[in-house]
Design a protein that fits this description.
Layout: E1 3-6, H1 33-48, E2 52-54, E3 58-61, E4 66-75, E5 79-90, E6 96-97, H2 101-118, H3 121-135, H4 140-154
Parallel strand pairs: 1-3
Antiparallel strand pairs: 2-4, 3-4, 4-5, 5-6
Helix pairs in contact: 3-4
């Protein structure tokens, strides 16, 4: 099942009821919702955040039909956690309607703020410790060795 929405551009009347007569249209939609979602996930990973996934696409019928897709964060232990905006994909050409740099930065800031609230303070301190471990050593071998020791001391392998 897909949802199709018609966007009505005129203002709501100050009195009385709103009468809508959507245009009858017969359009060929070349891009499937799954294809639009895959395209959105690629864009998210490249330009915004790998912690976001494209949600369920909604077909918006306007002068230019688009798939409007929510940007969702899903955590393994909690499922769908939050929505941080939308992205639109042209339903005829599969082209991304790009977000502005300001929109991207706003979404990234919201995600960072959200994750900071979810993450215990001790975990943040641990990440700083790992960074300190890494930058104290100069050679690649020293860095990898020290990072492995840091990680194993914080998260020992389970004895099976």
């Amino acid at each position: 099942m897909i949802q199709i929405v018609y966007e009505y551009a005129d203002p709501w009347p100050s009195q009385g009821v709103l009468q809508i007569q959507p245009p009858s249209a017969c359009l060929d939609i070349a891009v499937s919702p799954d294809s639009a979602r895959r395209k959105a996930n690629n864009y998210l990973a490249m330009y915004i955040s790998m912690s976001l996934l494209a949600g369920k696409p909604l077909l918006i019928m306007n002068k230019r039909p688009v798939w409007r897709i929510p940007l969702e964060m899903q955590l393994d232990d909690r499922g769908h956690t939050a929505t941080f905006g939308i992205i639109e994909i042209d339903a005829q050409t599969r082209e991304i309607i790009p977000l502005t740099p300001k929109q991207i930065r706003t979404i990234q800031d919201q995600v960072n703020d959200f994750i900071t609230r979810l993450t215990p303070e001790t975990t943040l301190v641990s990440y700083r410790t790992y960074a300190h471990c890494i930058f104290r050593y100069k050679s690649k071998k020293e860095i990898l060795s020290r990072l492995q020791r840091c990680l194993l001391s914080a998260y020992p392998l389970s004895q099976q």
